[in-house]
Design goal:
Number of domains: 2
Largest sheet: 7 strands, mixed
CATH class of the largest domain: Alpha Beta
CATH topology of the largest domain: Beta Polymerase, domain 2
Oligomer: single chain
Mean pLDDT: 83
Strand content: 15-25%
Order of helices and strands: EEHEHHEEEEHHHHH
Structural class: alpha+beta
Radius of gyration: 35 Å
CATH superfamily of the largest domain: CorA soluble domain-like
Length: about 325
């Protein structure tokens, strides 16, 4: 469902009015208009673009999915592509938003209804006195909500990686195939999230660099706070990727160590088994030897087998090979 709002001199005076009335409202002095469109058609966006004087390239980008997070500047407006993120069944779900920013209008275009636009409205209404700053305040509330959602994605990923780390050093489990798959899924999620977080940092940074061109000086600290959050999200993502890589490397080293232990044990038992084979092979020769054909030969070979095997066992056990 499309949403509309009209602010006049920082006060909300009207909402849920037809989008067709937007062009008339925008022309009024001291007014700020916000309207939200969910999954619009090409005709819808073209019509809005004509009413607000939006550049055709910006309208085209809003119609095409999977744009890179970015900020484009045109003569009469800014165009921002941003992504909200949420964790659904251990996978990151991205929701694309196209944002048109003019002097007195903010237009949000959602690709689907999964993005909670009502939460953004509640954030605006929580500080109604800030509405006097117009479009920069509305844009800040929207971007702040999007970036805050990044931490709700990163925290569960951090918890999963920490659980993997605990399992690794506690020696659990013996069957490592589920852990391999989980590690792969986590790494894929982090790579995908990094492609979102890094450009978003540049988007907010670009708004800050423009400063007074598009922002009221009173709003700059608020945008700096959002920029700080994007930096934290990007740095957190990088640190998690590095930690996951370290866990994977430690796991491979642990597997190599376990394999060496197994090989030492197998080799030690093979040496113990080889000694009786050597002795019985010697006494099985078809030539005369001391004790040949006499009971003493049998008992001497038995004593040699038992004594030699015990000697090798204790020697390997002392070296921690068994």
């Amino acid at each position: 469902m499309d949403r509309t709002r009209l602010y006049r001199n920082g006060v909300l005076v009207k909402e849920s009015f037809p989008i067709d009335d937007v062009s008339e409202c925008v022309g009024e002095p001291g007014t700020v208009v916000w309207f939200d469109i969910c999954a619009p058609t090409e005709q819808d966006l073209t019509k809005i673009g004509e009413e607000l004087g939006l550049h055709e390239l910006a309208v085209e980008d809003a119609l095409h999915d999977r744009q890179r997070p970015k900020l484009d500047s045109y003569d009469s407006h800014l165009f921002i592509t941003a992504y909200a993120a949420e964790l659904v069944e251990q996978k990151i779900d991205l929701i694309e938003l196209s944002i048109f920013v003019t002097k007195n209008a903010l237009v949000t275009v959602r690709e689907n209804a999964d993005f909670d636009i009502d939460a953004v409205v509640r954030r605006w209404d929580a500080s109604p006195e800030m509405a006097r700053y117009g479009v920069p305040y509305l844009l800040h509330g929207l971007l702040d909500h999007i970036v805050d959602g990044y931490f709700e994605v990163l925290q569960p990923l951090d918890d999963q990686i920490e659980a993997l780390e605990d399992e690794l050093f506690n020696g659990l489990p013996d069957d490592l195939r589920p852990r391999h798959r989980q590690t792969f899924e986590l790494r894929k999620n982090l790579v995908r999230f990094r492609r979102l977080a890094m450009p978003m940092r540049e988007v907010v940074g670009s708004l800050l660099r423009r400063g007074g061109e598009v922002l009221d000086p009173a709003m700059i600290p608020y945008y700096q706070d959002v920029h700080d959050h994007t930096l934290r999200a990007a740095e957190w993502t990088d640190s998690l990727r590095e930690l996951l890589g370290n866990i994977r490397e430690a796991h491979e080293n642990q597997q190599g160590f376990k394999l060496n232990q197994i090989m030492k044990k197998v080799t030690s038992w093979a040496a113990i088994i080889a000694l009786p084979t050597l002795i019985t092979g010697f006494y099985g020769q078809n030539v005369p030897y001391p004790g040949s054909g006499e009971p003493i030969g049998f008992w001497s070979s038995t004593v040699l087998i038992v004594a030699g095997s015990l000697m090798l066992y204790h020697m390997f056990k002392k070296r921690d090979w068994l």
